[in-house]
Each structure stands twice: as structure tokens, then as C-alpha cells.
Amino acid sequence: MRFKLESALPFGLLFPSVAFLALLILAPIGQAFLLAFQTETGEFALAAFQRMASDTAFNEAVRNTFLLLLTIVPLQIVLALAMALLIHARLRGQTLFLYVFAIPMAISDLAAGLVWLSIFTERGYLNSILQSLGWIQQPLLLLSYQNPQGIFAAVVVAESWRATAIVMVILVAGLQMIPRDFFEAAELFGAGTLKRTWYVVLPLLRPSLQTALIIRTLFAFQTFAVVFALAGRTLPVLAGEAYTWYYSNRNPAVAAAMAFLILLLSLLATVVYLRVLQVREEERAR
Amino acid sequence: MASIRFESVRKVFGKVVAADDVTLEIKDGEFMVLLGPSGCGKTTLLRCLAGLERVDGGRVFIGEREVTDLAPRDRKIAMVFQSYAVFPHLTVFDNIAFGLKMQDRPRDEIKRRVAESARLLELADFLERYPAQLSGGQRQRVAVARAIVMQAAVLLMDEPLSNLDALLRLQMRAELKRLHQEIKATTIYVTHDQVEALSLGDRIAVMQNGRIVQCDAPMQLYDFPANKFVGGFIGTPPMNFLPGVVRVSDAKPVAVVGEAQIAPSAAFAPALALKNGQPILLGIRPENLVLTSSPQPNTIRARVLVVEPLGSHKLLTVQVGAEIAKVSVTPDERVAPNDDVWLRFDPEKIRWMDASTGETIR
Fold first, then answer.
1. B273, B266, B221: which is closest to B252 by C-alpha?
2. 3-state class of B219 per DSSP?
3. Of B210, B233, B256, which marks where a domain is finished?
4. A206 to chain B: which residues are within 8 Å by CB?
5. Within an 8 Å CB–CB cutoff, is residue A204 touching chain B?
6. Which residue of A188, A282, A286 is in closest CB contact with B72?
7. Three-class SS string for chain A?
8. In chain A, which residues have their Cβ closer than 8 Å to the Cβ of B136?
9. Lowest mean pLDDT among A49-58, A173-182, B88-97, B127-136
10. What is the pLDDT of residue B187?
11. Across the interface, do A187 and B77 touch by the CB < 8 Å criterion?
12. Which of B53, B67, B73 to mutate to test the interface with A (most CBs of A within 10 A)?
């Protein structure tokens, strides 16, 4: 009896999280799979994917998603690393830095999008300030559909502001796991701040960088609310198109196909990061 | 090559004074050991010299150059860390070469010098390995090789042997001594192990509560501890301390310890003669007490409690009045627990200490 209880315990403890994952993750994936691959008559076909790819906005959405990803993710990593190193330097007031840097994490992405909309819009804070300073006569139309670069830049700024903090938190945690002796040894043996960062901090931070990159890239594929708030459909992105197919076009099949594409890209990116940034057994600290 | 000078160095952590007005001069090429219990400030003093801590007061010199406000990398020093701090992501070669690479030395020179220090530390066969593929002792060698390859005038070692097992520690101790004889860099070595200190140091600075209590050559320190703390800290087992009272009759002082009377040697008699009626401590090392079976002058009665045969000698724990003392005797001494014995004091070897301050009377 006792033996039975003991062997059942691990499964019992696992059950809640497995049930959670099954109900909220696996079941919707299965449903999306059926939606994407099944026709109305119940046959399996790629019609939804063909429809998705033939849409005029599709190529643009793919291009924009990747452009945003390739701009925002490196920018965020560099910014977050600088912020993390600043906090790690244990300057006076370092906890204040940490709290200020972390504020955007507490704000939902749609709210963040609206905050930046109120800054960048025609009668927004940015234009009011510039006008009251007398630097411009006419308000800048940053978010106009005639100014795609302006919209793109606004999205980059808003997304970076919103989601850099999470990367920073991961990197700060990673830095704190590295024994201080390594930094001191590097400094003592002649490495200045830049060399120390390049030759010691970054290699030892690889596991955290890997985590941060995976999380950020996955979220970048799902970028939606900030873009939606700032640009509507002027700057189509993959997740936004999925939303449009579902709500405006009333076509759940194509929306599901879109979601599947995002899932596939996310998996692919994860595998690449796991391979490229792998820390080999012999390089691990003991 | 360079001498080192601490001038009234002070370092405070919150309310703890880790270095309290420390002044110390280390000669060019000298092997100086900073010795003391944990928390005495010895590592802090080393880190102040390395530049890893900023001093709160005083000045630090390397040679004639003041380095008090210089960054660690500008001080031309090399260091072996207690944790080794060998970079896990670099091979043994790249670890040893790290400092030279940071100085942008030509590749040929790096290769030659790494090979040279790898040879000195018997690491030549492991240059392509990563630290995780090495034993603890080998990683320690990498840390030492990385330091000596710099050919810095000053070499700092922070408890480098404390993470090794006993046998390896013994081996590396002799190895480090040989290495110092070979490279002759001014070395500061921090340890809490008094045997290590005695075996390695040209001089030893014993620290307590952020101050240097005594700085002397090893045997001087062992034979003439400046106070009770040093006598009790150095030596395994430490010095015995027996309380007594000074009595002077006919201008001749004796210490009354229980029923026994112990006379000082001629050298200490005048000093003791001034302390009539005052309490005093007799400090004597376990090997300077001789067992006799009958009372004689300068003997004291004791009862044997424990006999520990240790191969090269026997260690006795004896009770003298209310005090416990340790006595070291030859292995063939016939003695058993509960024996009543007499301990003879060699007057030349007794260190007399003030009972209230613990300071040695000179």
C-alpha cells in the first residue's frame, strides 16, 4: 500500500500542470490543426494555406514580421545587456535603476501601444512638446500611412520600451549567477570594460542569452497589440493578419493556418538558438 | 622586481574595521605570508593591494610608485584566487594566455611564454583541455600558471591551497616554494593555515581584528610570540598557558603555579622581579615540557588524561591543577592514562606573559 502511494506521488504532483497544459495549450493546438487542415466537408487539404499565401498582405506581413524581429531583438539584447551591466556594477542607487527599468513589464502590451500612440499621434505629446519649443511649425505625421518608415520606427521604439525589461531581468539573473571572481580575475589580468564584456561576460552569459533570445524571438513572431494600436493594418504583421482573418474576414481556417505558420517559425527559431548558443559539457563551470 | 609598502591602510565595511591602520613593508623578492583566523582582515589587505578594494585611508606603494588609486590592471600584479577563477569557457592554453592577450602581445611571444609556464607547472599535456576536464589540483596549477606567465613583479595568492585535499596540499606547498625560489617575484600569500605559513614564508605577518599583531621570520614567531594570541594561533597543538603568581624572595623571582615553583631563566628574572604578587601566564610549547617520574626543581605535578600515539611522537593531554595542557613526548615514552607524572619546564623556553593583557614580557 505504502509502496503504491510513493510511486503514485510524482504523477499526482505532475497532474495539475499537465492538465493545465493539456487544457489550455495542447487542446487549442489540436483544434487549430483541425481548423487549418480540414475542409468544410471534413477532408484534409492545404486549401487554407493556399488561401493564406495568395493574400496580397501576406508577403508584406512576413516581411514586416521578420524586419521587426531583426531590428528589435538585437536592439533589445544590446540595450538590456547595457542595463544589466549597469545594475551589476553596483553603483549607488542600483535598485532604483532596476525598478525604473522594470516598470514597462507591469504594463500590458495593448496599453503600452496606446501610451505610445498618445505620444506619437498628430496631436500627441511629442508634437506638442516640439511645437511649444518652436522647433516645428506643423505637427509631424509620424503614423500616417504615407510614412511607413515613421510607423516602423514608432513600433520599434514602443516594442523596445515595452519588452526590453524582461530581457534585462533574465540577464541580471544570469550575471548574478556568475561568481564575481571571474570578473575580478579578468580585470586584474588587464581586461578593460569592453574586453571584459567581450571575452568573459558574454561567453559566461551564454545560457541566459539563449533563454532571452528564445523568449524574445517567440514574442516577436507574436507581435500584435503594439502594432495594432499604433498602425492598425498599415503595417501588417503575421499575428495581426491572423486576427484580421478571424474577425474581419470571418475565416477561422486561414486564421488557424496563420497561427500554425507562427508556431512553425517559433519552433525553428528555438532549435536554431539551442544549437548555435549551445554550451558544451566541457565548457561548463564545475 | 618591487618592494611593497602599506602606509596606515584603513578599510571599513559598514561597522567592521577590516584593516585598521596597517603599516607593513615587504622587501623586494620576499615571500610574505599574511596569517590569521577568518575575518581578521588578511584577504582585505591583499585585495587593497590588488586594487579590488578601495582603501578608506592610507596609501599603498609598489616599488616607488603609489598605486592607491590605480585600477587593478594598471598595478602590474598577478594573482591566484582562492576559487582559482579559471575561466570555464577557455582552454588551459587560453586561460594561461589571457593576461598576455589582453596586453596584445605578439602571438609568438604568447606561445613561448605559455609553454614556459605550462612546463614549470607540469601542464604541457593539458593545454587543449577545458578546466572542467581537469582535477582540482590541475585547475589550481592553471591558476598559478596564469599568474606567473605575466612575469609581474608582485604575485598575490589568496588561500590558493585551501580547496585541495590534504596530500595534494602538502605537495603543492613544496611546489610553490620551489616556484618562488625560481621566479623570485615579491609574493604575498594569504592563509589561515599556520603550518602553511611557517613552511612558506620568509616572514609572517599575524593579523587579528584588522591589525598586524606580529611580523617576524617563522621560527622567531614560533619561539617568541608577541602575545598569547600568536602563541595560541601558531603551532599544532598550540602553546600551553598556565596561570601563576610572581613571588620575589631575596630579589629572586619565582612563579607559583599551584603547589609548584617555577624559576625564570636569567634573562627574564629582572623583568619578573618587578612584578611581585602579580598574576602571570607561563607560555610553553608541548615539546618543551619533559616528563619525569619524580619531583625535581622546576617541575609540576600532572595527571595524564589521554595518550595519542601519532607516529613520530606521542601527544599527551594532561591535567595541571585546574588547567589542561598538551605535552609532546617521544614515541617510546612509557605512559598511560591516569598516570601521575611531573612536568619539567625548560626555563629558557618559557615565555612569560602579562595575565591581563596577554602581552609577552621581554
1. B273
2. helix
3. B233
4. 89
5. yes
6. A188
7. CHHHHHHHHHHHHHHHHHHHHHHHHHHHHHHHHHHHHECCCCCECCHHHHHHHHCHHHHHHHHHHHHHHHHHHHHHHHHHHHHHHHHHCCCCCHHHHHHHHHHHHHCCHHHHHHHHHHHHCCCCHHHHHHHHCCCCCCCCCCCCCCCHHHHHHHHHHHHHHHHHHHHHHHHHHHHHHCCHHHHHHHHHCCCCHHHHHHHHHHHHCHHHHHHHHHHHHHHHHCCCHHHHHHHCCCCCCHHHHHHHHHHCCCCHHHHHHHHHHHHHHHHHHHHHHHHHCCCCHHHCCC
8. none
9. A49-58
10. 96
11. no
12. B73
Would you state the cell numbers that stand for residue B143, as one nine-digit string? 591558476
Q: What pLDDT score does B205 carry? A: 96
The β-bridge partners of B254 are: B247
Residue B69 domain-assigned (yes or no): yes
What's the pLDDT band for A95 if we cut at 50, 70, 90?
A: confident
pLDDT digits (tens, 9 = 90+) for A98-121: 888 888 888 888 888 888 888 888
Q: Is A186's CB within 8 Å of B98's CB?
A: yes
- ipTM confidence score: 0.85
Q: Domain locations in chain A?
A: 1-45, 58-283
Q: What is the pLDDT of residue B106?
A: 95
Minimum distance, in Å, between the CA of residue B102 and any CA atom of chain A: 6
Cell digits of residue B34? 599574511
- Give the CATH number for residue B280: 2.40.50.140
| Nearest-CA distance A208 → chain B (Å) | 15
Question: What distance in Å separates residue B101's CA from the closest CA in chain A?
Answer: 9
Q: Does domain A58-283 have CATH number 1.10.10.60?
A: no
Q: Does B359 fall in a domain?
A: no
Does some domain include residue B274? yes
Calpha distance B208→B226 (Å, rounded): 12
**pLDDT score for B250:** 84
Mean pLDDT of all residues belonging to chain B: 93
B296 to chain A nearest CA, in Å?
Answer: 59
**Beta strands across the sheet bearing B16-26:** B16-26, B4-13, B57-62, B65-66
Contact criterion met (CB < 8 Å) for A190 and B103: yes
CB pairs under 8 A between A and B: 74
A90 inside 8 A of chain B by CB: no
Q: Select the residue of B71, B85, B129 nearest A185 (Cβ to Cβ).
A: B85
Say if residue B229 is in the same domain as residue B261: no
- Is B187 a member of any domain? yes
Nearest Cα residue in chain A from B96:
A189
Q: Does B24 share its domain with B90?
A: yes
Same structural domain, B80 and B214 = yes
Q: Cβ contact (<8 Å) for A182 and B85?
A: yes
Which three cell numbers mark B159?
588561500
Can you tell me the mean pLDDT for A256-269?
A: 91
Task: Give the per-residue pLDDT at A90.
Answer: 75
A194 touches chain B (CB under 8 A): no
Domain span holding position B128: 4-233
What's the pLDDT score for residue A2?
A: 60
Structurally, how many domains does chain B consist of? 2
Residues B190, B91 within the same domain: yes
pLDDT at B54 over 70: yes
Give A277's contacts in chain B (Cβ within 8 Å): none
Q: Decide if B129 and A203 are in contact by the 8 Å CB cutoff.
A: no
Closest residue, chain A, to B90 (C-alpha): A283
Which whole number is the average pLDDT over B30-50?
94
pLDDT tens profile A189-227: 999 889 999 999 999 999 999 999 999 999 888 888 888
